Queue: 3 jobs
Job 1
Amino acid sequence: MATVTSVDVVIVGAGMSGLAAAETLIKGGITDIVILEAQGRLGGRIHSVPYNDGSIDLGAQWVHGQHGNPIYHMAKELGLLQQRPLYSSLHGMVQSSTEWLDEFYMPDGERVPRELVLKASKIVDAILGECWELSSIKHSYKSVGEFSRDRFATHVKGMKVDEKEAKVIESVYRWIRMLELVENACHSLDHLDINGYNQYTICGGQPNVDFTNTFGSILQPIVAVIPTSKIKLNKPVNKIKLKSGDYVAAPIIVQCADGSQFETKHVIVTISLGCLKANAASMFDPALPPYKLRTIERMGFGTVNKIYLEFTDIFWGEEVEGIQLFPEETCEADLLGKDIAANWQKAIVGFATLQKYGHPKALQTFLSGHAAEYMETLDDDTVIDMLMQRLKQYLRRSDLPRPCRIVRTAWHGNPYVR
């Protein structure tokens, strides 16, 4: 017979939300709680791992913005942040453009001067910035993709630039669109609702603030408040069930995959939207109201993966902070097409160097959407082959060394993230 443990509050999930909920309850005097975490570790999408003599983040990596950002203020108060926020190559490009130490390349290997990229980036950034103004005016646009295409075409018609500059502007436009896919974890900007996009609040200040160590350090002071006996790892929850039909008075039974059960008065569910999308219809008894299930189903939850490549030599030069690859004209269409196996590597549009993080011989890149999902199905050697093929194409160098190590994420294949 399954063991049943009685407790006042069950928290499902030990990511940042679940741990913060537990900390808040304990500090408020509610200590009869238990946290059920499906995985064998804490943190959810915060996942820092050892790497050489230091560590790297497989999940959350930066604090985005300073002004009005509770995570920034919390981390700053705890002394967890770099004294001077570091510039990060792949994100916040335009905002930090005065510090650019990146190299920019066309698909045919042509190297583009930074000043041209800066000029073009300001134009494209202004176009995307117009999205934020749409919340206060009437418009017929449905997606960020539709709006940005229309506004870009309008801007280009009115510009007096030579053929070379026009080519760079179009290339930067495609490149920033690809970066937006990573920023928003979507397959296409045509899937990104413009009304939701312009309701997002951007915190001012440095767009990417680095931790002294890794993002995982922010969990330590929270976890320190929670007794280890309150945390149960490797406890996937299968069912959350009312013992009777009385929503007010009836106890709740939380059933775990290993057969154990918890009887409780309150349940706080903090699992990821991806996991909820996969399990909401079967997890709750009685079922969630139809409008809630429809809302969960309609909300998007995309995939973003990281890849770290380590080399024995720094072939890119010690002063370079990024190798940026302007995507092919057909890149977005290719990544949405049927032959993702032949095109997934086109989602890679840049590599950041990691010398500022204590890993001088490593490169980091991101990819999102169907390409990120497909990459998870490949073995390490195949991923390395395709990425090096892309670098050799853009840099016009056949002599590039093969990485001696690869570390990559597989968030889509994780059933507790999806």
Note: The mean pLDDT is 91.
Job 2
Amino acid sequence: MCDVHYRDPNKLKSKKGIESKGVEDILKFTKSPIQESLIEFTDSSLNKVASETFQAVMKFMGDLPLKGQTELDVVCSLLKLCGEYEVIRDEAYCQIMKQVTDNSSTKMDSCRKGWRLLYILSAYYRCSEVLKPYLLWFLQDVCNNPTLHFQGIARSCEQNLQKTFQFGGRCGFPGNMELKAMVAGRSSKRQLVLLPGGIEKHLKIKTCSVALDVIEEICYEMGLDRPEAFNEYIIFAVTNQNHNVRPLNKKEYILDVVTEMEQVDSNYMFWYRRVIWSHPLKFDNELYVTMHYNQVLPDYLKGLFNTLPSVQPTEQQFQQVSKLAALQHRAKDSIYLPTLREVQDYIPPQLYCLLEAQTWLDMISQHTQQTLALSAHQARAQFLGLLSAFPMFGSSFFYVQSCSNNAIVSPCILAVNQNGLNFLNKETHEPIATISLKEIQSTRTQRPSAGSSYPYVEIMLGDLMSQTVTQLQLEQGLELCRVIATHMENLLLAREKRLTLPPSEITLL
């Protein structure tokens, strides 16, 4: 069935010195601790480690007294041993399989806890490629055999193992609350994820859920089902009253992040945001439209999408701003004309000050009459459609305190999008300089220097023959690096796709 080299059954002894009768006995429950490993190792010192792991297994299952330890202590000691000795991981899997096979323990919970331990181990460490086929067969045999108990958890163990091979396994040991839940058979929890505009999504997070799973679930609800679409969104971990915003790698385990954040701030949050806007907008899904509308609206109201000309804007530009204001009013499901106070809230302040308040109200009121026939959803969709024509639409904006490049006047605004890094004048938002994504070799964050409150981001530009470094100082350094990395990954994926498609398909991209 597999090429795992088990110890010669005639030489395997339990603590009581009773010899095993055959290989089948090696993988069957025993009431006595083993003194030697089940798998034959060339390094005899591993027998002691194997004995320790087996005692941990028996203690967790209730077949040995805990002797002052807690179940959490025992699980952590087992996981720690598997972390320190990679070769012992197969041994641990075999030991647990042994103890749940033909389990004849006098402890009622022994077998159930053994399966729970296998569930935990499979979430943290992969087995070897040699053991993998046997381990999967063992789990699938239980899943497919209606006469056996534990079909559900065997299926969950198999899913954990597949996830561990795909994403590398959990990193942080489970906390007391998570462990208690797992022992009690609760392998998931409801986790709040906030979409733009404060839209709440309470998602079912399993032991091995990663950030990509969360992204996919919300994308499906928004009517998106292609991997290319999933790549455009990011989950952010937020602590310290929104001051610390950390973008998650798509392979990060959500419950690892939860454990990490709970130690820092019990009021942590997860945000869901779109970062890349290469796919065209779609307007048939209400959640999709609302989420995107809520994300771009704050940046629009800060004036980040508008370039402020040195001369008075044209009548056409004023009418466009008025229409966008009327659509915002209708998006709130308002059927009455806006007030002077509301009008001020709908217009970027840099533009609002250019006309009298009553003039703005009169123009917006005209457009409001035209929007009354729209639903709130249609008003949001139209707003997005109009805004998508603006040059900086689809950008992530950052406020840069200083820049080492003398050609870039700072402080300034940095807009990161598919066209690269666009540095904009802080006041007028006119372009100062643009760095193409193709020029970027790498990015890294640096701690704040003495006397400085903001960290630095170093961006290496150029090619293999010649490189320069541009240093930016800003508060959101880590977020900037992750956003740039996401754009770079998307660029490489698009390039790989072009290289692998047949010529007839390339023209369609």
Note: The first strand starts at residue 188 and ends at 195.
Job 3
Amino acid sequence: AVVSTQSTGSVRLFALLTIGGIGKHRDLSERQELQSVIMGSFNSTAEDVKSAASYALGNVCVGNLNLYLPSIITEIQDNPKRQYLLLNSLKEIITSMSDREESVSVLKNYVPEMWNVLLRYMQVSEEGSRKIVAACLGKLMLIDHGTLLPKLLEYTTSDQPFVRSTVVTAIKYTVTDTPQPIDPLLRQFLGQFLSLLKDEDLNVRRMALVTLNCTAHNKPALIRDHMDEILPNLYKETTIKLKREVEMGPFKYPVDDALDNRKAAFECMYTVLQNCIDRVNIFQFLDHVEIGLKDVPDIKMLTYLMVLRLIQINPNAVVLKLDNILEPLRDTFNSKLKDICPIGQEVEKANELKRSAMRTVIGMGKIPEIEKHPSFIEFMKKIRFYKEIDNLFKQELQASDSEEMVWEN
């Protein structure tokens, strides 16, 4: 079924996935042609068939590591056009075998060889391949952290940005949501890896932000002692904008090369707020929330969630910053649809932004004695003057099932 040129794509896909599932638990080496048959599907025009072939090859290797792994490592080095699929097969091997103690003991024999091969591909131009390399490096460090983690640290000073981004991404794959033997060593070295938050390269910083967010989510204890160094670099990323114009035919479109970094930074801030609030100066934090309240819709939505969380944690700090929070909220309600959503974005996204802003207003209405605050009184009068906004207020108030909001009427 796999080799038949007359087989449909779905049949080949099913056959490859089945072979992979069987090969993971049984040695299939008696079928001498199996590896070449599977790799023949790498030439398919269907991406899902190629992915299934990559999965199958990796899992068949699990059934007989000694036979298949050396040839896969050789193929990775000899076939650059198949590099992504072969690296993905290697990831399947490492992932499958690192879950069971008896398998790990076998895999350990090949860790040095796999590690050295992976290091050669840290600077490939294809981002997808680099992510797979990073995942493999991270999972190998879980197997032999004492040797490999210090070795990886040396590459944080590489003069190649792709290498540095792969290094810091690899750390993300060591930070699991369960306790691991690597954790004490991570706590010791994590600050040095996260120093890449101040790297000169935009992409390296973005990968460092992703790793920081993962750590703050899964194991915040690992970064608590490093927050004094982390936060200034995190806050700095919220302010960087790199705008330019791109021409497409007769039209020009604005592009902000730093947007993905800012989104990643605000996502980190939200996670830090949830899990590391005891290490945060609330007023400094709010200063950067205010910046986000004036950014693009995706970032505004994140900052609205932060304001709601801060209302629960420290309502007095929110009240002290109230004027600076209300101003961008008022701008959102007053904005025309075209101002909120540039060309190509959905109308529903603009409407959801206003609904999210209104939920934030309703949340502020629950702060004790907020009804006596002059700025809030004036704000509510102005936004409820317009029928459309007043209707939105009533809808969201009803949806929130709030009995504490003092501005129902």
Note: Residues 210 and 264 are 7 Å apart (CA to CA).
